[in-house]
Amino acid sequence: MKINIYKEFFNLQNEESVIDLFFDTLIETNHDFRFFVDWAKVKANVEKFKVELNILNSLIRHKEFEKALVDILTRYPEVLPCFPLLIAVREQQFKLIDDFTSSKPKIIDYDFTPRKLNETEIDKIIKFVCQTGLKDFFVKLSAASLQDYLTGIEVGLDTNARKNRSGKVMEILIESLIQRCQNQLKIRKFIKQKEFIVLKEAGINVPKELEHRKADFILIKEPNKVINIEANFYNVTGSKPQEIVDSYITRQEELKRAGFYFIWITDGYAWKKGQNQLKKAFDKIDYLLNNKFVRDGLLIKILEEI
User: How far lies 197's CA from each of 127, 212, 264, in Å?
Assistant: First the structure.
């Protein structure tokens, strides 16, 4: 740890006080009201298939369902991507096993990309719709609008993205701070979620071991100072934080050999049970901050002094 900048910024006497402040100001959660559902994404995903869903609405409660479905698949193959979505699957191409209990199970390839279908392919889609229960859904269970149903599906699928949204909150905070202070900090290039190899475009040599490492943020200060910032948040304990500490210590060593700088920003109550691991990081990593340290302005101060 570059202790002097911490002591001066927070008016503290020693490293132990800085570390105590870090742990005392860890936050329990970084979830805000936008964490639960990305409604704009849900709406966009449903709107994308608005016409196709309207076509498939005609199948609801249809007395001759399979005959009507053959007609739709023949005339409107653009509806194909809707079938996986209606069972909460985003992939349009996947494999299924025909009979898991069979001594010689058959693997079936399914492809729901829009295209003109032959009779065999139509029969295959019909079997999929019947075997997965979609036929019963249309004939017995479905409400009046597939758009409303798919909206519910999309809300459910979007919950899988919550983990990513949690990790992005720290990145959003850092990005907004740096963008506001970009001129003040003399940052000539601000790069997000890219591999280090992109630095070659700016005329900067990159060691081979770093070329394909991905970085949350890479900053190039005038004239050619390179700073890598990584950000994450831990709600749970386990072995991963220890692995992350070791990996970031190694990354800083590699960056230093290249003449680059490294800043790690992390937070979350999980660190309260992993204090020994994080104290190791304080010992080895020059700049380690939490959410409060960033909000109080220490990140900007560090970037000014680098």
Answer: 48, 6, 20
User: Rounded to an integer, what is the distance from CA 65 to the centroid of its chain?
Assistant: 40
Handedness of CA 179, 182, 183, 188 (dihedral sign): negative
All residues at 6 or more sequence positions from 19 whose CB lies less than 8 Å from its CB, including other chains: 279, 282
Secondary structure class of 94 (helix, strand, coil): strand
266, 291 in Cβ contact below 8 A?
Answer: no
Q: Which two tokens stand for residue 12?
A: 């503290």
pTM of the model: 0.67
The H or E element containing residue 20 is helix 15-24
Residue 182 has a pLDDT of 84
Q: Report pLDDT for 238.
A: 56
Domains in the chain and their CATH numbers?
Answer: 3-30+181-305 (3.40.1350), 39-160 (no CATH)
Residue 88's Cβ-side half-sphere holds a number of Cα atoms within 13 Å equal to 11
**CB atoms < 10 A from the CB of 59, how many?**
22
Sorted by sequence, the CB contacts under 8 Å of residue 99 that are 6+ apart come out as 105, 106
| CA separation for the pair 161, 45 (Å, rounded) | 14
Q: By three-state DSSP, how is residue 199 classified?
A: helix
DSSP 8-state code for residue 91: -
pLDDT beneath 70, residues of the chain: 30-35, 142-143, 159-169, 236-239
Q: Which residues pair with 46 in a beta bridge?
A: none
In DSSP notation, 194-223 reads EEGGGGGGGT----TTTTT-EEEEEEEETT
What are the helix (H) ranges across 49-201?
50-56, 65-75, 82-86, 119-131, 134-136, 146-158, 162-180
